[in-house]
Design goal:
Length: 111
């Protein structure tokens, strides 16, 4: 098993496209699952993969902001770094988000 930083293997950037679906646990809290397609790129080379995980997001009372905690497990192409080398990773992410409404007066209406 090899542990390391993808930059050590020539990977310069990563990006993903995904979807999430969930259920409202309360008026302000969403519990969800998420799946995504991944690409890791270095120079003219790239690796493709996918990820699946789960998270929870809660809107902060009286504000347009929310906080989230998410876990994802990623799998990359088998043998991308040589025969028998599998690349997978676990990610835990925290997020602070401000939701801008088209009608700015709604953001401050409940203060």
């Amino acid at each position: 098993r090899v542990f390391g930083n993808l930059h050590d293997y020539g990977i310069d950037n990563t990006w993903n496209v995904g979807v999430r679906a969930g259920l409202l646990a309360s008026e302000r809290t969403l519990v969800y699952t998420r799946c995504e397609w991944l690409r890791a790129q270095g120079g003219s080379n790239h690796l493709d993969g996918y990820g699946c995980g789960a998270g929870i997001e809660t809107r902060l009372t009286g504000t347009p902001a929310s906080i989230a905690l998410e876990w994802m497990h990623d799998w990359m192409e088998k043998d991308a770094f040589g025969p028998g080398v599998d690349v997978s990773a676990d990610r835990i992410t925290t997020r602070f988000k401000i939701n801008f409404d088209r009608d700015v007066t709604k953001i401050f209406a409940d203060r």
